[in-house]
Amino acid sequence: MAMIRTILFKVLVLLTMAHAAVSLQAVAQQATLHAWQRSVAGAGAYLAATIVTSPMDVVKTRAQAPGKASRNSVVVALEMLRNEGVASFFSGLTPALFMVPAAMVQYTLIDPLRARFPLYIAAMIAGALDITIKCPFDRLKTQMQNDRSGRSMSTLFADTLKDAGVSGLWAGYTVTLVRDLPYLVIKWLVFAQVQALLNAGPLAVMFPIPPEARNLVAGAVAGGVAATAVTPVDVIKTRLQIASAATGGSRGSSIAVARSIIAEDGVAGLFSGLGPRLARIPFYTSITLATFEGIKDSFLRGQIPSAAVGVAAAALVGKREL
């Protein structure tokens, strides 16, 4: 028992040191980076990760669709390749790219907010804004990924307005909020702690690796933990958005959908698509956060010509520091 208490005490000390290191790092970066620089870093990070991991996201969505829960994700991917071709793995990419402004808001605000508030509050504020902005495009992306007719984003957008009005664009907003807010909070908390431990803790001595690799490892761990925790909500959200498109805007409650999934496929149905999700999200998160930190570091070191980039970026987000 005494040994367990000692181990827990050491873990607590390490986490406290990590939190302090992250807080100091956030304050330092906030004082030297402009809002437009963080915005550019966020946009670059989101675009890189979204394009690279799009095929895995499409397979995950197909695996979560009604009637697919019991099927292996590899089988779903092979059927897509055989019946629809390689292009099907990038369906829904257009509306996904339209979510860049939402990502820019999150990544522009996260550093200033975490310098003023606890990290979980900063993640909740930045995440709530991100989710609200991107929800209509996330819905269109989900529908395009599961649509075999090849309808364009503009057609789906027009059909949604016709069938369900403007509110139909935010179908599944509540369940998306329930899924993504915990995901974002867990992601940022785990990333910060792992990053700090790899930078300054005993792990830094035991496993000395370059800063870029540390960010990749921390991002992968954060993404894996967060993705697993919120997978059931992600399955429910996907079913709601697909049902909304199939029924012209009418949809059941989240609880009803959850009961239906359990009745059809058991509790395991709530974790359908977990395979491709774990294949994608840790990879996605590691690319996103490592790219975000890398671009910020490049600005801080003067490796990116701020004057050239600033002319274009300042016109969009302003050069005023938050």
Structure description:
The longest helix has 36 residues, at 211-246. The chain has helices spanning 2-32, 35-64, 73-84, 93-97, 100-116, 119-145, 153-164, 173-200, 202-206, 211-246, 254-265, 274-301, 306-317. It is built from 13 helices and no strands. Helices cover 79% and strands 0% of the residues. Helix 10 crosses helix 11. Residues 1-31 and 310-322 have low confidence and may be disordered. The N and C termini lie far apart (49 Å). By secondary structure, the protein is mainly α.
In the predicted model, the low-confidence regions spanning at least 5 consecutive residues are 1-31, 310-322
- Cα shape: globular
Number of helical segments?
A: 13
If you average the pLDDT, what whole number results? 77
The assigned structural class equals mainly alpha
Oligomer: single chain
Portion of residues in helices? over 70%
| Order of H and E elements | HHHHHHHHHHHHH
Describe the biggest sheet? Answer: none
Compute the CA-based radius of gyration. 21 Å
Strand content: under 5%
Q: How many DSSP-defined strands?
A: 0
Distance between the termini: 49 Å
Can you describe this structure in just a few lines?
By secondary structure, the protein is mostly helical. It contains 13 helices and no strands.
Key attributes of the depicted protein:
322 residues, mainly alpha, 13 helices, disordered N terminus
Please describe the topology of this protein.
Blueprint lengths: L1 H31 L2 H30 L8 H12 L8 H5 L2 H17 L2 H27 L7 H12 L8 H28 L1 H5 L4 H36 L7 H12 L8 H28 L4 H12 L5
